[in-house]
Amino acid sequence: MPERIPNQASPFSGLATAEKEALYREATALLTEERRQTFDRLAALRTRHVSVLLEDVYQAHNAAAVLRSCDCFGVQDVHVVDAHNPFKPASDVAVGSAKWVDYYRYGSIQDAYAALHAKGYRIVATLPHEHDQMIGELDISRPTVLVFGTELTGLTQEAIAGADAYVKVPMYGFTESFNISVCAALSLFSLTERMRHSGEVEWRLDADAQLDLKLHWAMHSLRDGEATMQALRERIIGQKGRN
Known about the structure:
Helix content is about 45%, strand content about 15%. By secondary structure, the protein is an alpha/beta fold. It is elongated, with a radius of gyration of 19 Å.
């Protein structure tokens, strides 16, 4: 799974748009035309308006299922606090989705909240019985991160206290809570569907962010992707210098 370092610049950020476009053409020429068309189509549907933060999820199949849901709903970023439980999604459950979704790792919930607040996100804790709103009532006008806790004990008190809002998924049975991966899938479906159909939310990535994302996807699709991309980059910049 492509890990991104919080606040670290993209490896393609030093390139002009024309250079990125040339690099993307060269990289996707090494892939199939179908793969390039898929990149172009899906990048336009990706969002960072809604994101997910997982706090010390320890079951590998749950971590993988959340990644799979994020990919399916077009949510590009997953943020992870794994101070106690290493984040190791089960590959057989993720079914390749980990290749297309980025994740950011933090040492504590406080570090994660500080980084996300600095980016303008509202942090919304998911709780089974407490506080105010149902997921379908949550305001989606602001960039939002949904926070999910560990399987047995849920969110820590620090995660609850530091959140900006609280939501729950409606339940009508004897069981008191959903499995974390089910709760994440239901919540993401609710938010992303309303987001995409609102007509008022600027949820899409801008053109440069889409191009940057497609370059990352291409890099992770190529054999020895980083080395191959670097060689292509040097060739393109060299050609430009001779023109």
